[in-house]
Amino acid sequence: MSETPKFTVIDRRKFKAEDEQESSQTAAPEPEAGAETDAKPVAQSAGPQLVTNESRREVKHEPSAAQAAEGASEQEEQELPPAPTAAESRQQKSAYDASAQRLEDLIRAQNPAVGAQPPIGFEQLVQQFYLSAMIQMGAGTQEGQRPRVDILGARTTIDLLGVLAEKTRGNLSEAEDRTLQTVLFELRMAFLELTSMITAQAMQPPPPPPGKR
């Protein structure tokens, strides 16, 4: 049985201040005269490695996904036209209102029974989304006709109404918020019922070809 090699542990804390210089010199002995200087380096062990300038340059040329997305958004902002000034917006709004009033006067002159149009508010906006989504889900089809369903368009309209609810949170009156939440709830329920019917029909086996059992 071979003898177990013995190791000597040196506690450097026992050295005094005046011996530190001597101990540091003995800890890093100089290579002996005549020793080969072109010896192969020892293989590096697993652990932290030094990052050279070349590797840093390589990493710099490969931006992360977040940096790429930020650069794309900055490029899109640069491509957008400048926003109109407040004076330009006021001037355009005044011209728009005057043009709309002339159109309404023309319609009422040709049809005296037609009353004045009510002012457009938030409830009319929500109602427009509601009607669009219901028509896309087949509502309003005349009797005897097959309903035409645009389920993807209905989903987009409902999602847009959800974005409107998210962006206007805290800025609506109690009546406006109740109207918006009620309409959004009803549209999502109708969407769930319709998609359930579509899924059930898609899972049914196809009918056998005619003439075969």
Number of helices: 7
Query: Could you give the count of β-strands?
Result: 0
Mean pLDDT: 77
Which structural class is indicated by helix and strand composition?
A: mainly alpha
Major sheet characteristics: none
H/E series: HHHHHHH
The whole-angstrom Rg is 39 Å
CA-CA gap between termini: 87 Å
Q: How much of the residues is beta strand, in percent?
A: under 5%
Core attributes:
213 residues, mainly alpha
Question: What report would you give on this structure?
Answer:
The protein has 213 residues and is mainly α. It has a domain at 120-203. Helices cover 55% and strands 0% of the residues. The chain has seven helices and no strands. It has helices spanning 20-27, 53-60, 65-79, 86-110, 122-136, 151-167, 174-203. The model is unreliable at 45-52 (pLDDT under 50).
